[in-house]
Amino acid sequence: MRKNYFIVIMLFFAFLTHAQIKVQGVPRNDIKLKTATQKQLTAKNANATTFDDIQFWVGTGANKAAFAVQWNDGKNADALIWGFKWDGNATGEDMMKAIAKADPRFYTLLLQGTQFGTAIGGFGFDLDGANTIGLYKSGNVTYPYYPVSGIVNTAVYDFDEYTPIDASDHWQSGWTTKGYWSYWVRDDVNNGFDYSGLGASSRVLQNGSWDVWNFNVSFAEEPIAAFTPVTPYANAIDFTKGYFVVNEEWFGHTNGSVNFVSNDGKINYRVYSDINENKAFGATTQYGTIYGDKFYFVSKQAKDGGDTQYTPGGRLVVADALTMKTLAEFDNVGGGDGRSFVGVDEKTGYIGASNGVFIFDIANMKVGAVIAGTGGGSQYAGQIGNMIRTSQYVFTVKQNGGILVIDPKTNTVVKTITGAFHSVTQSKDGSIWGIQNKKIINIDPLTFATIEYAIPTTQYLGSWGAWNAGSFTYSNKENALYWMNSVNAFTSGVQIIKFDVATKKFNESFATLPGQTGTFKQIPYGAALRLDPVSDHIIVNTTESGFGAHYQKNWIHTFDNTGKLIDTKVLNDYYWFPAMTVFPDNAVPVVNAILPSQISTGSPTIIDLKAVVSDEDNLSAAIVKTIKSNSDSNIVSAEINANEELILTPKIGGTSTIVISFNSNGKIVEKSILVDTAVLGRDEFTKVQLSIYPNPVSDYLNISTEDEITDVVIYDINGRTINARINNNQIDVSNFAKGFYIINIETDKAKYTQKFIKR
After folding, report:
1. Which of 86, 195, 513, 756 could potentially form a cystine with 90 if both were Cys, beta carbons 3.0 to 4.6 Å apart?
2. Secretion system C-terminal sorting domain: from which residue to which, for each copy (predicted)?
3. Backbone φ and ψ of 266, nearest 5°
């Protein structure tokens, strides 16, 4: 009898040892069940952390719960812990997803929609801040998986096959071979943790709940370690310090996006989507520009039907330029596909489309009518390309239609410059330039007279068939233009071309893109090339030749204005298809002291406004000057002519205040001038004869005068003479120390004393 009793006892323990265990609600016969005593001993190793110790809280509400993850990966022994707040009902899955969405460092591998709810296959955490978050499956580095709202989804229990892109991340995943994520819970702080056989979807949270996910490496259970509170994520990217790269994205898979490269070199991916609940732009986002305080993103089509991850935003998306928060979205931009955008004034912009130029009401965020004369032609025979705003007009490239000159005061086409143009831009001196296959054309900004300059040996072939903004662009610091050469209509070359506007000389070997060895070479993509308006650095986006998976390889190269390569950044592997680089607009126009705040005159007076205002990060020549108000037009009339001269004509004795508005790319400053006409006198005009600009100045100080300069002397704030040489009415002050200076200028007719600030 005793022998039989012993056999029964042994069989009972054998049954306990091999009894079925549930992992996240799934019955598992291959995992041994721990005894209750073992479960409690494991849990009691957790330290006495309280809610007061938690630093990173997600959600709002009266209820609180804690969420911890312990990787047991040898990188550190602690379990990272977050906090979760809510009202009403919530599950462990709700808590996990909310934290993954709120903390970009934390990411998950999930199998959702099973009969047992959501299975957690893997957890990861960006330990080094490298931001290279994503997963490879089965060692396939060609097609990585990137989390959306912190989640990478899979369709089967293949968790063991995933590894992190960044090997320095916390990462554990498994189900059948590597181990599994065990789930430990408690709802009373006075009790120990208990193993939960339920999944996160079935776990109902209570106020005061604690959830711990503990990875059992090779199915061996580890004690719960000390809790380490996760520090809050500093999500406030400073979008004034760095530059944006607008992406077409992978057609048929994802809608357009924008990355941001911070000045510290960090690449922040899909910043608009991260900030706006996984919203994206439309399909094939090809253009972006900042005007005023808004960022305008233009896509060819309203949405990519193959994108199941991001919510499309339409052909035009308007965002706050400082926060990237959505302001407006438009599927329809006039009936055609989107191409480009240009700001006209504080109330109006123009949308370039495949079927013409459409007026956009910035103040009320509405798409308006087409501008007469800009439409016509089929979708790929009459589309609008690049548009630029000068101080007087808008110049627009139309396929097969030349360059259209639009008067923004009347929204009418006033001139058509015929020719097969690909792009248009404005140089530092204010002149307009169009580019064709084998020549560039100088266009007078007022008379529209043209002069052609043949490109010596290379060529520039446009992309009207699959339009992009093109590489033809300008320097804000030097009077120079840049572009990439072309091999044929489908292939860009690897040479950066520089054209000196002053000397009219081409440098066709200014710089060569790196990565020109081996079978597959780096090639420019999209607009490819743009210049930082402040540093004058050249930013070039490249991908890899060879089609297919090669296009997942992307680089950003930075050259200085001598053609020297000074930096290269490698992007996460993905089909970004970079469209163009956009720089933040941080500076406001600065009106210098040359523009008087008070004028006493009895005769007509002319002040050249071109010389009195500048902008550090935009073309000073493009600043729009307007009369905002005249307090008494019976005393003095005020107008600004086509030469950007302010003409004050006294009528009767008295005083009037003239307010002048200076609009530089949507950023506006105003200047008031008190005009005293108490003494009426001569009929002839008096003209302000000399001015200096920009002021403050970073590199070159310009002197504007019609007289001959005979001598220039500069003094610092202590009265010491500073050596300076004048060349073509320009002084290089780039090596001056920051501060105030006095400049004495002598001409053949008069002497002048001015002050300026070296920035």
Report:
1. 86
2. 692-757
3. -75, 135
- Of 421, 423, 552, the C-alpha closest to 483 is 423
Reduced DSSP (H G I as helix, E B as strand, rest coil) percent helix, strand, coil of the chain, to 5? 10, 45, 45
pLDDT above 80 for 43: no
Q: Which of 473, 480, 560, 545 is nearest to 515 (CA)?
A: 545
Query: What SS3 state is found at 620?
Result: helix
Q: CA 456 to CA 479: how far, in whole Å? A: 20
Q: CA angle, 389 as apex, 384 and 390 as ends, to 5°?
A: 135
What tokens were used for 661? Answer: 């508005």
- The residues facing 754 across adjacent strands are 743
Residue 272 host element (H or E)? helix 271-275
Question: 């070359």: which residue's tokens?
Answer: 493
pLDDT in tens, 594-633: 788 888 888 888 888 988 899 999 999 999 999 999 999 9
| Closest-CA residue to 491 (of 512, 530, 455, 521) | 521
Pairing of strands 26-28, 21-23: antiparallel
**CA torsion, points 201, 204, 205, 209, in degrees to nearest 10?**
-100
The dihedrals phi and psi of 87, each to the nearest 5 degrees, come to: -120, 155
Residue 491's pLDDT is what? 78
Structure tokens at 368: 């308006």
Rounded Cα distance, 420 and 462, in Å: 10
* Token pair recorded at residue 553: 């390889």
Nearest to 557, CA basis, from 492, 512, 493, 499: 512
Rounded distance, CA 397 to CA 468, Å? 12
Where does residue 622 fall: left (phi above 0), alpha (psi -120 to 50 degrees), or beta otherwise? alpha
Answer for the pair 703, 689: CB distance below 8 angstroms, yes or no: no
Helix (H, G, I), strand (E, B) or coil at 295: strand
Q: What stretch of H or E contains 582?
A: strand 578-582
Q: Which amino acid is at 463?
A: S
* Full-model pTM: 0.76
Neighbours of 326 (CB within 10 A): 16
